[in-house]
Write a structure and sequence with these properties.
160 residues; alpha+beta; 38% helix; 7 strands; elongated; 4 helices
């Protein structure tokens, strides 16, 4: 609903969602489909007028989550995904120029341990470069981990 640009497109998208129980992972799975793909599972909204049920769900979601109303059906989710990708591109670009080996996996970066301080600074600067003035709002939490340990750190984004 956050990626959709209107309530109608959000309802249409929800109307193409199916669910099933994954016995291997012991969890519910919900998947949205596009086009004429073969669908697995049961429709989330089925029976009479499933599109109306999806629209009612959106209205109820807004009622129960009033702080999210401005973001719903605004397309902001797609913008945030684009910014996330740009953040990672900026990180790759600077690490490459500094000749630091880096592997990016979605929203994680894997680097040799000896570059920890540099990468913390890189994350801070890349965040501010990508998000401009809104990237100076305070601190974000990040995790450093290896096979044995995990350490939570805070990166101060108010520094320039």
């Amino acid at each position: 609903m956050i990626n959709a640009s209107s309530e109608k497109s959000a309802a249409r998208s929800l109307n193409n969602h199916y669910y099933w129980w994954d016995i291997i992972n012991d969890e519910w799975v919900v998947k949205g489909y596009k086009g004429r793909q073969k669908r697995d599972g049961e429709k989330v909204f089925s029976g009479d007028k499933p599109l109306k049920q999806a629209e009612k769900y959106i209205a109820m979601f807004k009622y129960h989550h009033p702080m999210m109303v401005d973001a719903l059906c605004s397309g902001i989710g797609s913008v945030l995904q684009l910014l996330d990708g740009q953040l990672m591109q900026n990180i790759i670009k600077v690490a490459t120029r500094a000749e630091i080996p880096i592997l990016v996996i979605h929203d994680e970066v894997i680097v040799p341990k000896q570059y920890k301080t540099f990468v913390e600074m890189l994350l801070q600067r890349a965040f501010q470069t990508t998000f401009k003035d809104v990237g100076s709002f305070g601190t974000i939490k990040a995790k450093w981990s290896n096979l044995q340990t995990e350490e939570e750190i805070e990166i101060d984004l108010s520094k320039s």
